[in-house]
Specification:
about 400 residues, alpha/beta, four-stranded parallel sheet, globular
Amino acid sequence: MKDLKHLYYFEKLLDDANNELVRKAQSEGRKCIATVCENVPEVLMDLPGAFTVRLRAPRTGSMEMGTYYLTSLLCEYSRALLERAIEGGYNFVDSIVTPDGCTMINRCIENMELLKTMGKDKENFFYEYMEIPLKADDNGLNLYVLQCRNHILKPMAEKLGIDISDSAIRKAVEEHNKICRLINSIGEYRKENDPRITGYEFHIITLSTYVAPKDMLIEKLEETLEELKTREPDKKNPYRARVVLVGSEIDDVDVVKLIEESGAYVCADRFCYGSFPGREEISINDTEDALTQICRHYMYHSQCVRYMNQDKIQERRQYVRKLAVDHNADGIIYEQLKFCDPWAYERMVGTKVLRDEMNYPVLSVDRPYAVGSSGQLRTRVQAFVESIEIKKIQKGAAK
């Protein structure tokens, strides 16, 4: 297929946490609020005068210092972030808000604070830690609203002078929804039998909306959507199977690239940094305050494994199944970062349920933070694609 006009631009934004658009926004006086988890409502940090970035550690090499402070038994994402922070890679941010998502991330951010890795020459810099409910119910919502008010909105107003009024929050929701509509419209092309956008390209585009001021991306996203309307797919489909990629944090686009080079088209992305459910529009009405509605949306739409009530656990399996049906997937790849405890359990149970009860071929893998050209993962994906092809042949013969 012909190269997308702005793909290189989006890709360059992923090369460095302190990317071109972050620097431009800060030069205009806007405050950068960092976070490390989807459970911190990003729309609350995209208020007028501020913007949010989800921290990553692109081009990660050695993690010796991160491992020294966190041990080798913690997930590589937390170790990579701490390593980059010690190197000074996040000193550009004006504050950081982190949730009680998992003990590993908690320890990572605590060490960032203890080692004074951020906030240099920023008088009003702040760290904030917030609790996240374990159950999606009324009590959980009350906790969520209180935590967001005390640990996001209040310090943004007091330390950074950001307008946190209901009208400002509603304006941020409008901007957020505009980005969501664009990403979802672009993602719809993945449903085609001969898709005119690769999963790799889509991941680059989606990931850029997590790491840069969203409003600065709108024009190029609109142009990309228009471009896709007339883009011609390859005459010969290079993929032998369609898969839904499910699991923990993926901010390394090489993961999707490797999977697709192995013959499996990533037609849907249910992982942290993905479009499902991270780029679902937030619906709010005029009869209830915006903050409560936003928290309710994040809590009930979240597919994070932190939510442990039985309804949410069952919902996560059904959500993956629905994605597979809607995108005509042949199989599912369940992945987790090595030593990610919450997703280790979810991957094990989810694999069994989707394979044994819902009859989907499932590949279950753990992976390093920076995949690179992992031969082991490539071999496993290739074998998975072959197994799907064999099942199709057997199914056809049975008819």
